[in-house]
Specification:
It is a single chain. The chain is α/β, with parallel strands linked by helices. The protein is about 40% helix and about 15% strand. The chain has 10 helices and 9 strands. The strands form 3 sheets. Strands 2-5-1-6-9 form a 5-stranded parallel β-sheet, with helices on one face. The chain has a two-stranded antiparallel ribbon with strand order 3-4. Strands 7-8 form a two-stranded antiparallel sheet. Strand 7 and strand 8 form a beta hairpin. Helix 2 crosses helix 3, helix 6 crosses helix 8 and helix 8 crosses helix 9. The radius of gyration is 20 Å and the shape is globular. The relative contact order is 0.17.
Length: about 300
């Protein structure tokens, strides 16, 4: 079975064929993670640093690795670098005076490195939790006591940054970089690049989970891309494994929500023509209902299922 799918297959297939193809795509993704899980299960790593650009599926990937390791008898705990964000009014500023939420210094770096030091030393620590709705970070009151052989998965766009990796130490850490290495092709042409698909993922996720309107998402996207070049790409070198989270069927699932949101961009918006370009490419495609997406799919991080 191919990892590139003709829209006509989706249009004319019955539920069982659709489900079979989705299972194939999901299993292919899981196979990418198997070498990572096998090394963690056999080794002595205390922390997995899992980084990737916006909407690469880091959070769900961390959960999937955790589930796979748990089935092998390992205790695994995720930690998101997002939970160490400063409040929005403390974010570093871009040259135009707007907040730069992609900047490494938007993190409470000292607090995070202290937490990682304590994890490595098997000392108790307090989890942090960031609320995107309120823009506030809180420290949870109860101390957490790491188990001797517990594995922590540190995930976030900055997880492979040198300062965090140095705090952990190479002998206690495995670096993983996740992104989309494929786009959606049809009739031999690239219809959506991997960056396009990540943008559509973010568009749908921001609306479903973060109460962010479409104009704001589109406005932030250029800063997101610039941030990736500055704060993520230089640290891919710290990854032992690279994983693609692309699911060939996902554009058909994202289609309906994305079209609904993009159609709200008004003609006087500076993002109108970009929205129309995506609408023109999405509209001819058939859709796949969310109900077909497995509950453990990375796609659920975006679709609000």
């Amino acid at each position: 079975m191919s990892d590139m799918i003709d829209p006509e297959f989706i249009r004319h297939s019955g539920p069982e064929q659709i489900k079979e193809y989705i299972d194939f795509c999901e299993n292919s993704f899981y196979n990418h993670l198997t070498p990572v899980v096998n090394e963690l299960a056999a080794g002595n790593a205390k922390i997995v640093s899992l980084a990737g650009p916006s909407c690469s599926g880091k959070t769900t990937c961390a959960g999937i690795i955790s589930d796979m390791l748990s089935k092998l008898g390992k205790k695994v705990t995720p930690i998101s670098t997002d939970d160490y964000f400063k409040s929005p009014n403390e974010a570093p500023l871009n040259a135009d005076g707007t907040p730069n939420y992609e900047h490494f210094e938007h993190l409470e770096v000292d607090l995070l490195t202290e937490t990682l030091d304590r994890i490595r030393a098997n000392k108790p620590f307090h989890f942090s939790k960031y609320d995107f709705m309120s823009g506030k970070r809180t420290t949870l009151p109860d101390e957490y006591f790491p188990a001797e052989n517990e594995i922590f998965i540190l995930e976030g766009i900055h997880a492979l940054n040198d300062r965090l990796m140095d705090s952990i130490g190479s002998t206690a850490n495995i670096g993983v970089y996740i992104s989309l290495y494929n786009g959606y092709n049809t009739d031999g042409k690239m219809l959506f690049s991997s960056r396009d698909i990540r943008f559509v993922r973010r568009l749908v996720r921001d609306y479903n989970y973060r109460s962010i309107d479409i104009d704001t998402t589109m406005k932030q996207w250029s800063n997101v891309i610039e941030g990736e070049e500055l704060y993520i790409m230089p640290y891919i070198k710290n990854a032992k494994y690279t994983v693609s989270s692309y699911l060939p069927y996902e554009i058909f699932v994202l289609r309906d929500d994305a079209l609904k949101l993009l159609s709200t961009v008004k003609s006087d918006s500076k993002y109108y023509y970009r929205a129309q370009s995506i609408i023109e490419r999405l509209s001819p495609l058939p859709s796949i209902a969310k109900q077909y997406v497995p509950k453990n799919s990375i796609l659920n991080e975006f679709i609000g299922k």
